[in-house]
Write a structure and sequence with these properties.
single chain; 3 strands; 3-stranded antiparallel sheet; 219 residues; mainly alpha; globular; Aspartate Aminotransferase, domain 1
């Protein structure tokens, strides 16, 4: 069958790097401490130099965006014009194949992290959930709260990488003439995506919660 030959081709497609020996991470510097470009540059230069001298490290680099991440650290997003070709590229399919083999393991780990967040943030913000009988995919952990932008700024000011949780299509360039949609506006204005990767521990979850607690309790 055609799909089986395509799958075999994707499984053997070189992705350009060895994922077993590659680590990537996002870094957002607190605006209160890093107010000019020269200071930012000095930080990254020193960080790269120090990491390059760690045992076993063969190369270190910095970039404005993570490869294949799909957004920048500021959370900026725009669609200038609608597109028609939304097929996943071969290289991204190849990268995803080994992840599919670990799907249950990965999802279980994310469920544990989501449960830790939900336990700590209950009553503080509106929590994400799934309908009864459904299983949440936990691609992200997005909460809803008033003064989202204030909370986002507070988290980033404390060196915690957070993002806008969702976007309202009618606010983007390609669809601005399609609104208004007040429900979508409200979701966009209140949605906050918290740090969500399985290496986060109880201490990191508590640190995020403490910042949110200060924002919510200040009003």
């Amino acid at each position: 069958m055609a799909w089986s030959s395509t799958f075999q081709r994707l499984a053997t497609t070189p992705v350009g790097f060895d994922p077993e020996n590659l680590a990537s991470a996002a870094c957002h510097l607190p605006e209160s401490s890093y107010k000019d470009d020269d200071k930012d540059i000095r930080f990254y230069e020193e960080a790269i130099d120090r990491m390059a001298h760690e045992p076993g490290v063969t190369a270190v680099a910095a970039n404005s965006t993570l490869p294949m991440a799909g957004s920048n650290s500021r959370g900026d997003f725009e669609i200038a014009a609608p597109g028609l070709n939304y097929r996943l590229s071969d290289i991204l399919c190849a990268v995803g194949i080994p992840q599919l083999e670990r799907l249950e393991e990965l999802l279980t780990a994310r469920e544990r992290l989501a449960a830790a967040y939900s336990e700590r943030l209950a009553g503080l913000v509106d929590l994400p959930s799934a309908e009864e009988g459904d299983r949440h995919g936990w691609q992200a952990y997005v909460v809803q709260l008033d003064r989202r932008d204030e909370a986002l700024a507070a988290l980033r000011g404390d060196g915690i990488e957070a993002q806008i949780g969702t976007y309202a299509l009618h606010r983007l360039g390609a669809y601005r003439d399609q609104g208004p949609f007040p429900g979508a506006d409200r979701c966009y204005e209140r949605a906050l995506a918290l740090p969500f990767h399985t290496s986060l521990g109880v201490g990191e979850v508590e640190r995020v919660a403490m910042v949110l607690d200060k924002v919510v309790s200040s009003h």
